[in-house]
Design goal:
The complex is a heterotrimer of chains A (350), B (343) and C (258). With 350 residues, chain A is mainly alpha-helical. Chain A has 13 helices and no strands. Chain A is flat. Chain B is mainly α. Chain B has 10 helices and 2 strands. Chain B has a two-stranded antiparallel ribbon. In chain B, helix 6 (222-230) packs antiparallel against helix 7 (235-264). Chain C is α/β, with parallel strands linked by helices. Chain C has 10 helices and 10 strands. In chain C, a hairpin with a 2-residue loop joins strand 4 (60-68) and strand 5 (71-72). In chain C, helix 3 (102-113) packs parallel to helix 6 (151-164), helix 4 (118-131) crosses helix 6 and helix 6 (151-164) packs parallel to helix 7 (181-194). Classes of the chains: A mainly alpha (350), B mainly alpha (343), C alpha/beta (258). Chains in contact: A-B, A-C, B-C. Chains A and B meet through helix 2, helix 3, helix 5, helix 6 and helix 7 of A and helix 1, helix 2, helix 3, helix 4 and helix 5 of B. Chain A: InterPro entries: MetI-like, MetI-like_sf, Phosphate_PstA, Phosphate_transprt_permease. Chain A: This is Phosphate transport system permease protein PstA. Chain A: Part of the binding-protein-dependent transport system for phosphate; probably responsible for the translocation of the substrate across the membrane. Chain A: It is a multi-pass membrane protein.
Amino acid sequence: MSTTTIAKPASLRGARLPRWTPAVVALGSAAVAVAIGTVAGLDSRIQWGLIAAVLFIVASYAVAVAVEGGRQAKDRLATSLVWVTFLLAVVPLASLVFETVERGSTVFNGYFLTHSMGVVADDEPGGGIYHAILGTLEQVLLASVIAVPIGMLTAIYLVEYGRGKLAKVVTFFVDVMTGIPSIVAGLFVLSFWILILGFDFSGWAGAMALAILMMPVVVRSTEEMLKLVPNELREASLALGIPKWRTILKVVLPTAIGGITTGVMLAVARIAGETAPVLLLVWVNPMINTNPFEGSQASLPLYIYQQYAAGNQAGYDRAWAAALALIGFIMILNLAARGVARWKAPKTGR
Amino acid sequence: MDIPSSTTSPTSPPPRHDVKPSQVTPKRAARGATRPGDRIFLGLSRGSGIALLVIMAAIAAFLTYRAALALSDNTGNFLTTFEWDPAGTATNGKPYFGIAVLVFGTVVSSIIALVIAVPIAIGIALFISHYAPRRLATPIAFVIDLLAAVPSIVYGLWGALVVAPNLTGLYSWLDDYFGWTGIFSYQGGAPRSLMTVGILLAIMILPIITNVSREVFLQVPKMHEEAALALGATRWETIRMSVLPFARSGVISASMLGLGRALGETIAVATVLSPSFVINASVLDFGGGTFAQNIASKFNEATEYGRDALIASGLVLFVITLLVNGAARLIIARRKEYSGANA
Amino acid sequence: MAKRIDVSGLTAFYGSHKAIEDISMTVEPRSVTAFIGPSGCGKSTFLRTLNRMHEVTTGGRVEGKVLLDDEDLYGAGVDPVNVRRTIGMVFQRPNPFPTMSIFDNVAAGLRLNGSYKKSELNAIVEKSLKGANLWNEVKDRLNKPGSGLSGGQQQRLCIARAIAVEPQVLLMDEPCSALDPISTLAIEDLIGELKERFTIVIVTHNMQQAARVSDRTAFFNLAAVGQPGKLVEIDETERIFSNPSVQATEDYISGRFG
C-alpha cells in the first residue's frame, strides 16, 4: 500500500455556475467597457472592444475560481478565450461588409455600372466602372481559358496516371505554386513578355499572370474531386472494354464535374480580386477598351486602387462603390459555387 | 484480357487508387496495343503537369536574368544598402539600391501578423472543431471562408479608411505605457505604420491558418480524446493532453503557410502603409516598406532599369516565399506519413 | 472503495435514434459483471452511459437514473468530470497518449487532480503498473513512449493508467478484442485480480470470455436492426450459461444467432 493518499472528489457533485453565467458576464463586461470608454473619452471602438474582451476573460475566470475551483476555472478560461477569438474574427468581417455597403452605396447605381471614367477628372464626382468590369471579365475569362485546361489535365495526370517521381515533383510544386505571391507572377510576365519580348501592356499580359495564380487552385480542387470518384466506376467501365481515356472523359469527369465546377468558380473568384499583377501588366486606362490584346485596360481591383490613390472624396466614394461591386461579384461567385457543390454533390456517400 | 487501361508502359504506372487484385493485369501486356487515343490523352495530361514545372522554372530563370542585369550595374550592396535609387539621382546617375529596409519591414510586419493571427486562428479552429455547437460550426467555417474570399484591395481600402483612423487611440495608449521600450513609441499622426499593416495582414492570413489547423484538429483520433475524458479531464485538459500535442506540427506548418501569404501580400500593404525608405525602431510610427509594397508603389515611375531593380527585389521575395511554403508542405507531408502509420 | 451501481429505466439516444431502451439492473461491488449480446444491441452504449461518456458523442443523450451507491450520476449539479474520475474506463483499442512516455501515461490522471512529489508519483506509478502486471516488462524503459509497446502491453498500460487514480468502478469495453490470445489471457488473469479491489463491468463479444471472467452476466438483444437494444436478463454467469430463464439467451449462447 502506498503511503500517499490520492486526491479524490468527495462527491460526484461539483459546484457549478449556472448556465447563464457566461452571458451575464459578457453583458456586464460590455457595459463596463462602454462606461470606461465614455468616461475616459476613448474615441476608438477598437479599444472599447478590447477592454470588453479582457474584462470578460478576467471576470469569467475570477468567478469560476471563486465558485468552481482551479481546474474548472482553467477550463472556463480556455472556453472564454476561444469564444473571444471567434468574435475577433467575426467583427472585422462584419465591419468590412458593413462599411463597404454603407459607403459604397452612395454612388452605386445604374449609371455607375454603365459608364467609364473617360471624361471625368479624378477629383470630380461622376463616372463609373463599366470599363473596369469589362476589363476584369475579359482578363478573368482569358486566364481561365489558359488555366482551366492545364489545371484539369494536370489533376487528371496526378490522379489517373501519375505514380512515379514526376507526379511527386508536380504535386510538390503545385503546392508551392499556391504560395507564389501575386506580385511575383506579375513580375515574371513583365520580365519575359514586356521587357524581353517587347510587347505592350495589355489585358492579355495580365491574364497570363492571373492564369499562373489560378492553375494550382484548379489542380488542387480537381484532384480532390477526382479522388472522390469511386474506383468501382472506373473498373466497371474498363471491364466493358472502354479505353481508359474515354473512361476518364465519359465516366470519371462527368461524375466529378459538379465539384470541379465549384473549384473553378472559386478559383475565378480568387483571381478576380487580384490587383498586383494587373497593376504591373495592364497599366491603367480610364476609357473603354474592349480589346484585351491591344493597349492598356482597366480592371475592378485596379480601379479601386487608383481611385483610392487619387486621395479625394469623389475618388473614395467611387473606390467604395467599386469595392461593393467587386465584393458582390465575388460573393455571388462563392455562393453560386457552393450552390453547384450542393446541387451536384457526389452521390457516392463519401 | 485486352483491357486497354492496363497496358501501361514502365513510365506510366497504373492509377494510384487502391489497386485491387482484379484490376492488376500483366503490367507490360503488349505495349503495341496502346490505343492512339490513350497515348494522346496521357501525353496531354502529363504535358500539362510538365508545363506547370516549366512555368515554375521559367519564373525563376527570367527573374534571375533580369535581376542580374540590374545588379551588375548596382553601385550599392544589394543586401545592406538602405537606399532605393536605381536612377542614381543622388549619385550622378550611378544606380544605388538595396533591400535592407525592405527586409526589415517585411519581416517586422509578418511577425506582427503571425503573433496576432496564430493564437486567434488556433482559437477559432478549436472553436469550430471542439467548442461550437454543431449547428454553429458549419456557418462559422463559412464565415471564415468568406474572410478568405475578400480581395486584398478591399482589405486595403478598409484598412486605410476604417481601421487606421480607429487605431490612434490604441497607439497613444501603447505609447503612454510602453513607449519607453522604443518599439511602441508613437509620435502621433496617421497610424499607417508597420503595426497597422501587421494587424491587417493578421486578419488576411487568419483564414488559411484557421482552416489548416481545423483540419488537423479534426484528424485527432477520437480514442485519444476519450482516453483523456475517461480519466476525468475537463474539455480544456483533454485538448491539452490529446489534441494539441498531436496537432503541433500541423499548426506549425499552417502558420508557415500564413507567413508565406503575409510576406507576399502587396496591394493591401501598399494601400495602408505610408511608405518611406527608412528603418524605424518604432512599429507604431509610419514609415518602412515591404518587398511587395515597394514594387507596387515604385513601379509606375520606374524606368526600365528601375523595373529590373524591382524585379531583383521580387526575386528575393520569390525565393523566400518558396522556402517558407516548401518547408510548410514538407512538414505536412511528413506528418501525413507519421499519422498514417499510427492511425 | 468499490461501489454498487443501480440503473433504473435508462434510455439512451443518438440524436433522435433510440439506441437502448428502459434498462434496469444492479451491478454488485467487488465482482465482475459481463455484458454479452449480438452486435448493435447497445451493450457498449450502455456501458458508456455508466460514466457519462455517452454524451461525449454528438447527439448523445440519456434518460433515466444511474445510482452509484446512493448518488445519481445524472442528478442536478453532478459534474461529469468527477463522474469519470470516479468510474474509470478501458477502451476497445488500446489508446495510450502517443506523445507521452510510459511513466507519464500512468501519471496522467494523477497530474490532472493534484500535485504530487516526485517520489509519491514514482510509488503510485510502480504500484499501478504492478497492479496491471506490466511492471516487470517496462520498469527499465519508463521514459520510452507508450506507443512502442505491443498491443497487449499497451492495453495493460491503459489499465494501469485507469487504476492509478483509484476509481471505484472500472468499465471495460471489449478490452481484448484487438489482442492476440496470449495477451487476452494476461488481461483476463488481471481482471480476476482487479475484482478484489474494484467493481468491474466488461463488455465482451466472446462468450467463453464472459464465462471465464465474470460472476454475473447480462444478455442484451434487439428486436430488429434499427430497434433499440434491451436487457433480456441478468443473472449469475453459471445460470446464464447453463440454464437461462429466457429462450433468446439460450439461442444466443448455443450459437443459433448473433
